[in-house]
From TrEMBL:
This is DUF433 domain-containing protein. It comes from the Bacteria. Gene3D superfamilies: Winged helix-like DNA-binding domain superfamily/Winged helix DNA-binding domain. It comes from Novosphingobium jiangmenense. InterPro entries: DUF433 (IPR007367), Homeodomain-like_sf (IPR009057), WH-like_DNA-bd_sf (IPR036388). Signal peptide: none annotated.
Amino acid sequence: MQHLREAAKRLKEHSGKPWSQLTLFTLNGEVHFRRPSSDVIEGAVSGQYGATIPLESIAEEIREKAEALKRRKPGAVGKVTKRRAVMGGEEVFEGTRIPVSSVRALADAGYSLGEILAEFPSLSAGDVEVVLEKCRLTQVA
């Protein structure tokens, strides 16, 4: 209760407006308010300023960076790579974690190029054609 009395006293000093026109906040049991003159958030008793963090702009920046990470380099299309740290050393399409064996299994099951691309939308026709060509070569040999 003492805190509220002190807050009321400080709010009267900082605002010529009625309290109904102020935006009040509480944090850890302390009353904070937005100064009408500067739009700064301040502790009514402590006088500490609150930081305004623009979360929407931060979230948008993270979304953009995540999308950039998803995009494959143009030179990676149609290439197969094998690294111990990626999918246990299994062959994958470069720039992805999609195992070549998964696409080969679909091709062996009779899936068409379009059907395989529908199953793996992040792959391109060039990726799938590499596997289909390997399947053809294996069948001929």
